[in-house]
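Batch job 17 of 40 flagged for manual review because the log was empty.
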Amino acid sequence: MIANLHIHAALREERTYLKKSYFSPPFKLADITENRREKWLHLMQMSSSPGILDGDQFHIKIELDENCHLQLHTQSYQRLFSMKKGASQLMEVFLEKGASFVYLPHPGVPQENSIFMTKNKIYLSEGCELIWGEIITCGRKLNGEIFKFSKYHAVTEVFMNNRLKIKENICLIPAETELQALGMLEGFTHQASLIFLKNDIDSASLIEKASAYLINEPDILFGITSAPESGLLVRLLGNKSEQLLDALKIIAKIFKDEF
């Protein structure tokens, strides 16, 4: 299946609204903004499919006009079914001057023999703010499918004024690499990452606040470092999807208070 989702947000009276949208099956889109007076627009990306199937090709494009503020939510876990050829997804995000974007999707669950390639390209203009999260699991852990997938490859690129600033390249091939070995996941089964970019932040203070929370979370290994531009990069290792998702949401809230 070849499917597309296009979101274009604009500004009206200092509030962000959905100017234009287009989606083809299995994608659906819902406006879940509760407070119509706040500056943030909240949209939920939904799907009528149980997951991503062999041969699927998805393209998601998001455009934010100047000073727009959008948080894109997901409906459920992204399940990757057994495949022979593989599936792919391309997500492109374009932020005009002063725009803000938050994206904390549900974890990806690659089932046995699944093959998936996802590429994220994020283009930021001057004064933009970004919170971007990702969680990758070992598969259906309770079914005994721990790293039984064939390949999971995720590439995220962040451009600022058309110059590449951050590139994250995660390629997991269990048949070729011992993923739980030293230097890899080191005994953990799940990993999460978060990119936070904003001008003129107090990095030391935010690292202290986020670390104070994470240090009390059981069975989590974490690291926080400064980004190449004004911002922070966070990496988490754990064994439970919900725990990592909740952790990313809390960290994002700490960071979002700076918006």
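Reviewer: the log was empty due to a logging misconfiguration, but the result itself is present. The helical segments are 203-214, 241-256. Unflagging and moving on to job 18.
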